[in-house]
Inverse folding.
């Protein structure tokens, strides 16, 4: 079983030119979201902890959970063009990681990109790591 969480992200375009005085202009645009998967989980007990780590909001942006469910391991949890974040529980807390396969528009010679970070309250991140993985060179 796995816990699947989907979010909505939106950005306040009105805040870009805001000088910080008075009320911030409101011009929100929906910008997609992410899918998070927690493998080996058969209930929603972790959802309150994960909500505190995933959700964030300020005058400029907002991300919030719009869906969560426990699914079978082989259940499809997102569109085929999406790459979900896998969440792992470790000694220091919750870590998110994902591997994104290289697309046609990428610079030749790469097979993908691996990204990971430790999740902090309010959508903050630490211990961020990102690595572009090159194709193995052919040996003559």
């Amino acid at each position: 079983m796995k816990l699947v969480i989907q979010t909505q992200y939106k950005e306040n375009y009105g805040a870009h030119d805001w000088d910080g005085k008075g009320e911030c202009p409101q011009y929100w645009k929906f910008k997609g979201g992410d899918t998070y998967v927690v493998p080996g989980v058969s209930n929603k007990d972790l959802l309150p902890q994960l909500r505190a780590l995933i959700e964030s909001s300020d005058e400029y942006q907002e991300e919030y959970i719009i869906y969560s469910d426990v699914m079978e391991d082989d259940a499809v949890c997102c569109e085929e063009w999406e790459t979900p974040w896998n969440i792992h529980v470790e000694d220091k807390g919750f870590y998110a990681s994902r591997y994104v396969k290289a697309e046609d528009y990428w610079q030749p010679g790469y097979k993908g990109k691996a990204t990971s970070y430790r999740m902090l309250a309010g959508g903050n991140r630490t211990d961020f790591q990102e690595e572009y993985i090159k194709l193995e060179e052919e040996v003559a």
Q: What stands out?
A: Residues 2-18+25-73+83-134 form one domain.
